[in-house]
Amino acid sequence: MYLEKRNDNSPDRNHVVSRFLRELEYYPSLLFLTTNREKVLDPAVYSRIHLTMNFPALDKPSRLAIWKTFLSREEDSTVTEEEYDKLADIDINGRRIKNVTKTARIMAKRAGRGISFGDIKNVMRITEGVSV
Asked: Which residues of the chain have pLDDT under 70?
């Protein structure tokens, strides 16, 4: 909210943005800002940023590594290499992979077993609208 473009309809937000800009202008050290909404940033924020880094969407090897990282934490996971490959084909970000894995873990734990590919498929169908 405090980085969003100012407008005439929200004087309270405009005040917050202006205050943040003053703080940013005189900040004595490094400050790291992250956002996935860069298109709504106030232009004055951009003028105070010295370096920006854009991260591209994950590629298949990156998604595969993330799936394996989260699922390797599960002692009883029955996901096979072939199933990992199918999961890595799905265009999804790391946060969503984490959330899917967490939900699948809850489902599997309630059933008294480790995570299966079926658990992940169910969660993906429900939360992502994707059939694996």
From this structure: 1-2
| Spacing of C-alpha 80 from chain mean position | 25
Q: Which numeric CATH code is attached to 60-128?
A: 1.10.8.60
Is residue 88 within 8 Å of 70, Cβ to Cβ?
no
Is residue 44 within 8 Å of 24, Cβ to Cβ? no
Q: How many CB atoms lie within 10 A of CB 72?
A: 10
| DSSP-assigned beta bridge partners for residue 41 | 4
Task: Return the residue matching tokens 């004055």.
Answer: 44
Q: Could you tell me if 101 and 70 are in contact, meaning their C-beta atoms sit under 8 angstroms apart?
A: yes
Residue spans of the domains in the chain: they are 1-55, 60-128
Tokens 């169908």 locate to 125
The pTM (predicted TM-score) of the whole model is 0.69
**Residues forming beta bridges with residue 4, ordered by sequence position:** 41
